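Let's practice the habit of predicting before peeking. Look at the sequence and jot down your guess about where helices and strands might fall. Then scroll down.
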Amino acid sequence: MASALDRYFMISERGSSVPREIRGGLATFFAMSYIVVLNPLILAGADSAGNTLGIPRVAAATALVAGLLTIIMGLWAKHPFAIATGLGVNAFVAVTVATHPGATWPDMMGLVLVAGAVMFVLVLTGFRTAVFRAVPEGLKTAIVVGIGIFIALIGLVNAGFVRRIPDAAGTTVPLSLGDGGRLLGWPTLVFVVGLVLTVALVVRRVPGALLIGILAATVLANVLELVFRIGPSVAPGQEPNPAGWSLVVPGLGTVAPVDLSLIGQADPLGAFTDLGVLGASIMAFVILLSIFFDAMGTMVGLAREAGSMRPDGQIPNVDRVLLVDAFGAVAGGGSSISSNQIFVESGAGIGEGARTGLASVVTGVLLLLAMFLTPLINLVPFEAVAPALVVVGFLMFQQVARIDWKDLGIAIPAFLTIGLMPFTYSIANGLGAGFVSYVLVRSFQGRAREVHPIMWAVAAAFLLFFGIGPVEKLLGL
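Done guessing? Here is the structure:
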């Protein structure tokens, strides 16, 4: 069996082993399992008709679609990339439903499905692959570094180590250390202990360092919750508790029946009727651009970190990776859980040593089990996973030395790409800033002919993407 797995997934060829792949699959699952809890909360609001998707139904569909797509990614594309509902598109969908009279959940999920179908066609025609190949090598490296800082910031924010300063504070500074510049609460202690332990294990080159750190922090978190009854940082009908757990309170949750009735409820044409053809088309364009470039940037960063990117900057089976990702948008919209895409938290498994699709199969199976065993997900709080994300961010940031900082035509776009990913909390925004500035700076240098024609087209699309607000206002949408 081990020999067959090795041959099929090319485990030895990629410098890995079956135990490392299993550990990597586990680490990725622990790092991303929160999406099964978080996605239902993001999509919890009522639409214009007063209908809700239902938290148990969204949770079940989120786990099912993520599990199946991640297994397909592992078996067919053979990369250690997990897939799940992407943060960003789901928030955009939720805000649109909440702020646009006449918008319904079937309408908006239908737009996600339409955007996914268009992207699927773009992959089949080779356009999406051509865009990937047109990106200069220096920008690809900047994408890796930017995603590394982004992952680290996600870990710090999830742990409550870095927090948003409330608007009521009347300051222009957006973030602070802990609460009001002070670290407080047992959850923060769990993060700090987990980070120190994980760094020590990584420095000592202990196999399974990230996974050991997650498990140790999880045990500590559950013990502290049992003893001190800390509770969540935010709970319905209660005052915010800055010393509470950020989302998942460690402990066994309640068992809910598996309800998959959301599948097939999306209406691909409803938004064009209820919101108008122009308004629905603009929303579909925003969704398309976000899922198109978010996933491409994530794929580049993870492939480089996993060592699977070839010397010429290409990724093996890239067409298959992009096809699975495109189908994720279709499946997510059709299941009313928003677009599914390559998950940046896959970096936790890669940091643990995952190099092949076997790790994705392990993660996918665990996600399918999560449909029935959601109480076990609640054992692992954000604060226990965050140290692994911070360490993975460091590992990816190391590639910053590969960028030619003397060539301003690459250095300035690289800087903007790296900076805007974490500062705007969006991979797509960082990519857009990098692409647009690359075209401009090369033109200023008198080297416009060196810019690939596709980069000009992508830069123009991003200019429209960034200016969508004024365009909507001009059109009265």
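How did you do? The chain has a mean pLDDT of 89.
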